[in-house]
């Protein structure tokens, strides 16, 4: 069976080359065996060449590939093919074979599938020297990440973080932008190049926003981000917010008000916060919207904490539930379904919802059972009518709607049950909004804001005249109302 023996060349200096790696390379050369190097861009390679080690470097693959993923896959395939041809080869990589070496992981997967045994030999990781240089014990909690594929979800500021493979200023720029989503721009980080290599080593600590300005970044560069519990950093993390809410609910040290709350007692606050967020949207106030959405999130996490204490559900159940739902209801994005228009998406959504209810054994006695009874009356009326219209229970012509409105007005004038007929009139008006494709809730909210704005103008003008609304006549106020109305229209 063919075999690949993988050895590490250490961080870069001759002194850092493991004796075991040297012995294998020297023995392979003496036997005229094949030696492949992932790259010859490593300081110890010149020493190997001078000492008579014969090898083939695979740097040409970096020029031919469009992405690192493609490059590493091609290198792994070449190593396997050569091993099958030669029977055995030594494959040498910088550092340690098990640290930040994608090709090694690919070989460990692809090799056995191709009938090639993969043996991991000695190595010496740059991490040993880096942690010694920055004075950190990795046992305190460490992340090792790849700068060429860094994702925000990988970052945890409470852990020491080493970002390897920062090959260039372009990679450093990508790393910087990703980290700045979690850390302040001026957060102090350490950039290290050629760590442990005498004469080449360079270590500098600087603000995060400056790391891509360094002109000495190369293939031996890494970035160290120290762990922190600073509030300005960890208060951006969802886990920190969850811990805060858990602390508020601690039976011994928590807040008396928070400890008294139940799902039912918090219900009104959830609705209030949702309406306040909607108001910020209507006012197009982005900063206030961020604050109000935080209040909505507070309600969600607080309910999840109560659920966790009761043993019914926790925050992760909430997240998983909605994540699964979004994937399930968007097969045109996450699966093979087709949806070319917004209407197609809605149709798919409704069909999937019905299937979900059928799978869960939910039986709706009425088509309208899916409309929550707790919705605001205007929104509920709109959705009830729309649901009925979807199955053909609707007016054919808008003139019929106008006729119905006139009928309801006449009945309102003639009846003693004003409340009932007034409700019918509102219901008919909402029907008209559907035909005009107007959201009645948004339309009424817009009118409410307009009324607030115009009445505030009337009050302001009256104050300028030394009067209050109570001291003014309807005619005076109506004149000012017309004044602001004309100003707005002009």
Automatic annotation (TrEMBL):
Protein name (Swiss-Prot/TrEMBL): Nucleoside triphosphate pyrophosphohydrolase
Pfam family, one: TP_methylase
Domain Tetrapyrrole methylase: 4-211
Domain NTP pyrophosphohydrolase MazG-like: from-to ranges: 261-334
Enzyme Commission code: 3.6.1.9
Enzyme class: hydrolase
Annotated PANTHER family: NUCLEOSIDE TRIPHOSPHATE PYROPHOSPHOHYDROLASE
Keyword Cell membrane belongs to the record: no
SUPFAM superfamilies: all-alpha NTP pyrophosphatases (SSF101386), Tetrapyrrole methylase (SSF53790)
Superkingdom in the source lineage: Bacteria
Molecular function terms, GO-annotated: nucleoside triphosphate diphosphatase activity
Record keywords, A-Z: Hydrolase
UniProt keyword annotation of Lyase present: no
